[in-house]
Structures are given as C-alpha cells and as structure tokens.
Amino acid sequence: MTIPIAILDALTGAHASWQPILRDGLRAVARADTGYLPAIARSAYLPTEGRLFAAFAQALDTVRYVLVGEGPYPRAASATGVAFMDGAVAGLWSALPDGGLSKPVNKATSLRNFIKMLLVADGQLQVENTAGAAIAQVALKARAMGSPLVQTLPDLQRNLLAQGFLLLNASLVFRADVAPAKDARAWLPFLEVVLQALAARAEVQSVAAPTLVLWGKIAERLQPLQVINAFPQVLSEHPYNLSFIAHAQMQALFAPLHLLQK
Predict the structure, then answer these.
(1) What is the DSSP letter of 93?
(2) CB 259 within 8 A of CB 156
(3) How many Cβ atoms from other residues are within 10 Å of residue 251's Cβ?
(4) In the chain, domain spans
(5) DSSP bridge pairs for 66
(6) H or E segment and range at residue 166
(7) 121 Cβ partners below 8 Å, 6+ apart?
(8) Rounded-to-integer distance, Cα 107 and Cα 68, Å
(9) Does domain 1-262 have CATH number 3.40.470.10?
(10) What is the pLDDT of residue 2?
C-alpha cells in the first residue's frame, strides 16, 4: 500500500497538527482502492502547485465549522484547494459606477450566490431583490471611502478562517475526464478519518464538536457515515442553485458572523 511521493509532498501545505491525520486518511483511501492514489498522481488534476491539502492550513484546534462543498473549481486559476475560494477572484465589487459584484465573482456562480446570501443575512439586501439596482447600491456603499465592507475575496477568506471554518471539498481533486461524484466516493474514507479526528478532539477537550455545513448532493453523501452523528449539521442545496440565496437556515447560521464586515 504505497502512497505516491507527489501526494505525500503536498502534505507540507497542511498545518503540522493535521499532517498525521491526513496521512491516516490517505492510507484509508489506499486501503479502499489501492489503485486510486497512483492514478491521481499520474493524471492531470486540479488544484495544481501542491495545493491538494491547502484547506488544512489552519490548526486542528481552531476548527469550529466544517463546510463541505463538492469539488475544486474546474479551472486551474480558480482551484485553490480551499472550497469556494476562487483563485481567479481578487476584488468583490465592480469598479463601474452602476456595477454590482465584480465580473470574476459573477463568473463563479457558487461564490456569487454565497456572497448574496451573506448580504441578505447581514441585512444589506432584501431576499426578494438581490440583483440589478439592489446589488449596485450595496457595491456603491462598498466602494465608498471608509466602507465597513470587505473588499477582496482574500479578506472574506480571512474572516472565514478567523471564525474557524475548515473549507473542505468532498472531493479534493477535479479531473476533466472523471465525474466529480466518482472522485468524491474515493475520498470518502479520507473525510471519515478527518471527521473522526475532529470528533475525538472534541471529546478529549470536552468542547462542542464543530458544526457540519453540507452543501449539495455530493456533500450529503457524508450522512451515512456513523461519525457524523457526533456533529451538529446544517444542510442545503449547493450554492450553484439560485435558491441557495434564500435558504433560511444558511442565513441564520451566517448572520451572527458578519463575514462581509471588516
């Protein structure tokens, strides 16, 4: 049961507290399918640049939420190894006087709908009116000198990390020639090990287990795992769906966090 060196080398992108856990997770993947990780190492997959485990850059003890999406963005510039954090996005707001969200944000549909949901949760938008002139008014306020709103996606990511979010995809890789659901099945043993480690930490430290935030059908496949019974859970459709913006449970979860505030 050999784990390819290229995949082991990517562990250097993870915090030291995660590295033995991630090795155990890789061994679990290899036990389930001895050929899977060698096939990944031989293939063209995203994310590139050794960012396979970038989601685990923060310490294990800081995790208060585990947000699970589906898989990396299918574009090399966008896939960062961190769920929903599109590497092709810098500024959040359009520079046009009557613009709303920036063009790169609008191109990343899931990110766009996530930001709109956050704006609704924060009282910046009304749920029945999240497009056109309404979003342009928010952007106008965001562009103003001394605006309280964050300006860039890295700003938003820092806020998420500060609140203890582990931004994890159900599949750690995207391959153009493989269905995302198939890769997600192969990574399920890895995710089970990660969740077991978080549950064990909560038990040992007598603290609340992190909240699982599951977005979309692929993320919901975690539900049959016995270990997730140790976690509070909030589920919704994937943010790719426009209906996500109006999801009441997501608004209730995120409203107190004020992630779009500096």
Answers:
(1) B
(2) yes
(3) 16
(4) 1-262
(5) 166, 212
(6) strand 165-169
(7) 250, 251, 252, 254, 255
(8) 21
(9) yes
(10) 82
Contacts 24+ apart (CB under 8 A), 102-106: 105/153
Query: What would the mean pLDDT of 238-242 be, rounded to a whole number?
Result: 96
Residue 1 confidence (pLDDT) above 90: no
Among candidate residues 105, 109, 65, 70, the one with its CA nearest the CA of residue 250: 65
Structure tokens given for 218: 């692929």
Residue 63 tokens, joined: 């995790």
CA distances, 145 to each of 103, 149, 233, 252, 262 (Å): 22, 11, 39, 30, 13
Q: What is the pLDDT of residue 213?
A: 97
For residues 62 and 259, give the distance between their C-alpha atoms in angstroms, rounded to a whole number.
Answer: 17
- In three-state secondary structure terms, 174 is strand
**Within 10 Å of residue 16's Cβ, how many Cβ atoms?**
10
What is the percent of the chain where pLDDT is above 90?
97
Tokens of 116: 């709109």
* 41 alpha carbon, distance to own chain's centre: 23
Query: 258: phi > 0 → left, psi -120 to 50 → alpha, else beta; which?
Result: left
Q: For the chain, report the end-to-end CA distance as a whole number of angstroms.
A: 47
The secondary element (H helix, E strand) that includes residue 68 is strand 65-69
Alpha carbons 246 and 195: distance in angstroms, whole number = 29
Distances (CA, A) of 180 to 172, 218, 233, 255: 10, 8, 23, 31
pLDDT number for residue 206 = 95
CA–CA gap between residue 136 and residue 107 (Å, rounded): 17
Helix (H, G, I), strand (E, B) or coil at 115: helix
pLDDT beyond 80 at 201: yes
Per-residue pLDDT tens over the stretch 59-103 = 999 999 999 999 999 999 999 999 999 999 999 999 998 999 999
